[in-house]
Structure formats: C-alpha cells, structure tokens
C-alpha cells in the first residue's frame, strides 16, 4: 500500500506493544536524529515535503477487556516499528501539553483524542491510541509517568532500563519544545502529523508472528540476547501441545520473570547492569561451558541451541549427552532459575559489604562474581558467607604477591557450578580453599620476584610496579586505624579509584631533596648510583596512598610541606608525618613494619631480618648504604 501520514495512521487504528517485544530502547542519539530529521523537513511551494519514516509491521489483534467499549476502530500489535511510534507518541504528548491551541485552531482536547487517548462518556475510562499490552510491566509507567494520568497506580518496582529511557525521551522533548515559540510549535505539529510518511504492512494470519518479529529485529538497534530469548520462549510456548490454560500460565511466568530481571538489573540507575553479561553468568551455572564461563557471544549461541525447535540435535555439554526436547517443564525450570539469580546479581554489584568490595577490587571478572552470587544464593548464613569470602579474599591477595601463586582464579566459577548442581557443598569448597591457603610459601621466590620489578626501564618500577600495592596500602590503612584505636575512617575501599599512590621522596626533580638523595649515593661507584636511587625511591616504605588529587599538588614539595599536609590525611599519611625527617632510615623502618604486616596477611610467611633486607633493598651495596654497614659503623639503623 502507499505511505500514509500520522493523522491517517491514528484515525482508525489502536496500537499495542505485545509482550514478546523489547522495551523502549532509544537514547539521546536516536532521539536527536529524529529531532534533526523533523527540523530539516523543507517547505516546497508552501507545502511540507514528505519524509519517509519507514515501514510499520502490524498484526491485527483483539482489544483487552478494558478497551472493548471503543467501537469503529481496529486493534493492532506492533511487530516492527514500536521504537518510532513510542517516540513520536511521547513527542506529540509533550507538544500538545506545551501548546494552548493546537494546529489549525483545533482544540487541544480534540487533538489528544486523535493522537493520545479517547475517553468514554464519563471520562473515567480511556483507550490509549498507543500503549503496551495490559499485562506488560511498563504499562502503568507509560500512562502514569509519561502521559501523566494520576489515576493510574504506579506499580512497585517500576524502575528499569526501559522506563528510564521513556522518562529520558520525555525530558529530551520537553526541553527541546520549551525553546520554541508558538509558530514553531505549530509548524512542528504539522510536520509530525502530515509530513512523516509510514508504509503500513499487516502480517498475514497464517505467518508465525514471533518468527517474523525476530527476523525484523535483526535491523536497527540490535536486540540483546536476553530480549530475543524472551521472544523465543513465548514463541516456543505457543507451539507446546499443552492445554491453552497451561500455555497462558507459562506465558505469564515468562513475562513476570523478565519483568523481575529487568527491574533488578536497572535497580541502580547509575549502574545499569548488562543484560547479556547476566545471562551468560547464569548460563555458566546452568550449563557447563568449555571455558570457565560462557562469553556473551558463546552464551547466545548456546541458549538458542537449548531453546530451538529441535534442541536434541545439540550437545548438552562435553559429556556427550544431548539437550532435552522443548517441554513446559524445561522452559519453566529455566526461567525460574534465571529470574531468581537476578536480585542476587544486583546485590553482588551493589553490595554494602566491605569484604565483597575488597574481593571485587582484587578481581572483578565474571568468574569471581558468579562465585559470590552463588554463595549468596545458596546460603543465608552470615558466618558461612563470611568464612567463604574471607578465604577467597586471602587467595586472591596471595595470588597477587610476587613469587606466590596458588590457583587459577577461573576455578571459582567451577566451584560455583559444582555447588549449584549439588556436585559439591559450600563446606567442601571451604576445605579446598583452606588447603590452598596452607600452601608452603617460598620466600626466595618472593625476594627474586620483587627484585625483578626494579628492572624495567620505562613506567613504574619496584614496589610501585606491584599490581596489588594500592590494595595492600588500603589494608595497611585499616591496620593503622585499629592500632591507633580509632573508629573513624580516613579513606575506605569505596575511595579506591579516587586514590593515588605517592612517592614521599619524589621520583625526579629533587630540588627540595638534593641533600637527602645525594647523601645516600655518596661513595658509590658511578655505575651503581642510578640503581641505588631507583631502589630507595621505589621501595615499599617510600610509598603511600593519597586522596583527592593531593598527589599532583604535593609531588615535589619539601618534607616540611608534605609533613604538614600529611598530618590531616589518611592514617598512612599521619603515621609518616610523625617523623621529623624523611630519609633512608625512616624509609627502611616503615618498610620493615609493612612487611611484618604482610606476614599477618599470608599464613606461613615468616621473614628473617635478612629476608626483609633483601626484599626491600636486595643489592648488598644498597643494603649497606641503608644500614650504614661499614667497618667503622655498628649494624642497625642509623
């Protein structure tokens, strides 16, 4: 058929977004493109040039019981084109709301009846020209928060990624329209309702509409795997041989499950969780991957093998078993377990637990998050959770001490899967953790590994190159707080990414440190001077954490200036500021204390004094300079 404009489109049609559709996905980029398209529609000989807006695919449907009183119209499901229709409906509503008299002198309430909703005689019931299916979780939000019907009750848990996008579109157009005068508003209204052209196609009744939907949505902004999977499961539900009432129940369960998932993943609007990351994480528990976890790409392939017309063609896993055929119970079991993980997945990413935050600071990969989520899912006992997580934190930290490596951290996902499938228990995993933590520590390997960190020519050197240094300094911060019998935090793990590592004696530009640095290298062979300076400046005792950009402002200041600023800083800084001077003896003294603290973090680690000297300074000529070991001097700190 030929293209028609919006007025013709809305004249005798009511549009509904069916439950297998994705939610509203347009963001500022797509909204801006539509606004620019409208702005650039030219007038030719006083008439607006037609602007082709694309094809809308529709499936004729029956009205919901609440809408059945409206006559002389047909109801249609939007199979393809809902993003455009949703956006245009929001734009029209905001434009009509901002305009006292509509285009061509029609009263605003008549225009609202044409494009937004038709009320009944009492005005208490409304049929919206464009809306979601009555069962959709976003139905109430669209009416209450977008079309501003205060008589609609806003359901609990209404916030999700899609409702956020709806609200953003409303704000976007409200701001744009607020800058227009009345003439510009009327012109915009005319462009929307007469210049935009739509090619309308109705899907034949004998076509499989879910299959058509999936094909259509290979275009434009891609559907997430989670969105496509919902459609696939509804499609498969309709093909079951179960009674219609069973299929209706299962379809509702799918919608409820996806509503729960979307709500949980978007519960923190500042950190909306990735849908396909979540799907692949759950699948890593539900099926055994070749790798430790399913990547998002492999998860998409696997989940559509599980839920295709003939899944029994595909392997269940590496055991040689095949996937089970599609049944009510297979779909039901999967959606229940997928949705029950969603609130736990949110909890992992938004935990108030310092222990969980420390673990994710050490390793935030999917394997670790899956393990954390599984323990939270399977155990409500705080003591059990704490024991398991403390063991994990110890393992992760040990793995990050140079010269110590006790396990492949991807094993955590396998542990989680074993517990999930009842092939092991949390207690059994605790035993494996403790066995790993009892691994013998080879101190010569630690000394050799820290020494190797000083060999790099470019970038960070020495202890400054140690990947877990900042984490260790945060742990030392907590130790110093407890030692001082303080209860108030100066910096916490929440400040980790706003905190930098500072060299107390700076790495270069020693205008204020010439005497300190030069006195250290006096008497050394010329070939040894550069390396001795590198070790002194980049050893453990000369490094601390600083917050709020203090690093750049203090970098090359004198000890007097730094000491004054450190007095009001972190417990690390306060501890350093307690010294009247800062030179080789104080650096060595602090480094020794820090290595002794490291011993408390790693069972079986016991440094001798000689081990500590070699770990901190390693070369004899540097050790001798630090401890002033000459025939005429006594051993010990200067």
Could you describe the 3D structure shown?
The protein is of the alpha/beta class and 638 residues long. It contains 28 helices and twelve strands. The strands form four sheets. A six-stranded mixed β-sheet has the order 1-10-5-6-2-9, with helices on both faces. The protein has a two-stranded antiparallel sheet with strand order 3-4. Helix 8 runs antiparallel to helix 9. It is elongated, with a radius of gyration of 33 Å. This is DUF262 domain-containing protein. It comes from Algoriphagus lacus. It holds the Pfam family GmrSD_C.
Keywords:
single chain, 638 residues, 6-stranded mixed sheet, two-stranded antiparallel sheet, 28 helices, 12 strands, GmrSD_N, GmrSD_C, DUF262 domain-containing protein
């Amino acid at each position: 058929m030929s293209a028609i404009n919006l007025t013709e489109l809305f004249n005798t049609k009511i549009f509904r977004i069916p439950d297998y559709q994705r939610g509203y996905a347009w963001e500022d980029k797509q909204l801006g493109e539509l606004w620019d398209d409208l702005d650039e529609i030219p007038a030719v000989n006083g008439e607006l040039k037609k602007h082709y807006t694309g094809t809308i695919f529709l499936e004729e449907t029956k009205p919901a019981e609440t809408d059945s009183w409206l006559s002389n119209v047909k109801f249609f499901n939007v199979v393809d084109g809902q993003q455009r229709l949703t956006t245009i409906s929001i734009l029209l509503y905001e434009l009509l709301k901002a305009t006292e008299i509509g285009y061509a002198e029609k009263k605003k309430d008549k225009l609202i009846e044409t494009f937004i909703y038709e009320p009944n005689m009492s005005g208490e019931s409304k049929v919206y020209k464009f809306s979601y299916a009555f069962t959709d979780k976003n139905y109430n939000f669209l009416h209450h928060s977008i079309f501003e019907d205060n008589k609609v009750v806003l359901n609990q848990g209404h916030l999700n990624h899609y409702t956020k996008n709806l609200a953003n579109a409303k704000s976007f157009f409200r701001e744009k329209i607020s800058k227009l005068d009345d003439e510009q508003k009327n012109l915009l209204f005319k462009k929307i309702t007469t210049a935009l052209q739509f090619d309308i196609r109705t899907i034949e009744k004998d076509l499989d509409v879910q299959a058509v939907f999936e094909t259509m949505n290979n275009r434009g902004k891609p559907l997430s795997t989670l969105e496509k999977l919902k459609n696939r499961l509804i499609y498969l539900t309709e093909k079951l041989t179960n009674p219609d009432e069973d299929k209706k129940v299962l379809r509702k369960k799918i919608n409820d499950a996806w509503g729960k998932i979307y709500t949980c993943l978007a519960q923190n609007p500042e950190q909306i969780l990735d849908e396909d990351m979540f799907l692949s994480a759950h699948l890593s528990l539900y099926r055994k991957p070749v790798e430790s976890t399913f990547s998002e790409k492999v998860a998409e392939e696997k989940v559509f093998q599980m839920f295709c017309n003939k899944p029994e063609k595909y392997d269940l896993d590496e055991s040689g078993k095949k996937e089970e055929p599609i049944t009510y119970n297979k779909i039901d079991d999967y959606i229940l377990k997928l949705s029950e993980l969603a609130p736990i997945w949110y909890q992992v990413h938004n935990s108030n637990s310092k222990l969980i935050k420390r673990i994710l600071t050490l390793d935030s990969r999917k394997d670790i998050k899956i393990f954390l989520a599984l323990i939270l899912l399977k155990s409500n006992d705080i003591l059990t959770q704490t024991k398991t997580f403390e063991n994990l934190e110890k393992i992760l930290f040990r793995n990050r001490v140079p010269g110590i490596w006790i396990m492949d951290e991807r094993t955590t996902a396998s542990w989680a899967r074993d517990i999930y499938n009842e092939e092991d228990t949390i207690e059994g995993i605790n035993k494996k953790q403790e066995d790993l933590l009892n691994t013998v520590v080879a101190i010569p390997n630690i000394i050799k590994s820290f020494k190797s960190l000083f060999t790099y020519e470019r970038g960070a050197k020495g202890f400054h190159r140690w990947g877990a240094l900042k984490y260790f300094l945060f742990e030392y911060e907590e130790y110093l707080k407890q030692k001082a019998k303080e209860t108030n935090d100066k910096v916490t793990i929440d400040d980790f990414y706003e905190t930098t590592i500072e060299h107390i004696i700076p790495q270069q530009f020693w205008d204020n440190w010439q005497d300190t640095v030069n006195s250290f290298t006096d008497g050394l062979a010329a070939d040894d001077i550069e390396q001795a300076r590198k070790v002194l400046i980049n050893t453990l005792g000369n490094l601390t954490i600083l917050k709020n950009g203090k690093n750049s402002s203090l970098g090359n200041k004198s000890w007097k200036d730094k000491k004054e600023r450190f007095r009001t800083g972190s417990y690390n800084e306060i501890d350093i500021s307690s010294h009247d001077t800062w030179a080789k003896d104080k650096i060595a003294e602090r480094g020794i204390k820090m290595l002794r603290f490291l011993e408390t973090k790693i069972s079986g680690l016991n440094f001798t004094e000689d081990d500590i000297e070699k770990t901190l300074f390693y070369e004899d000529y540097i050790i001798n300079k630090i401890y002033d070991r000459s025939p005429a001097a006594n051993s010990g700190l200067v």
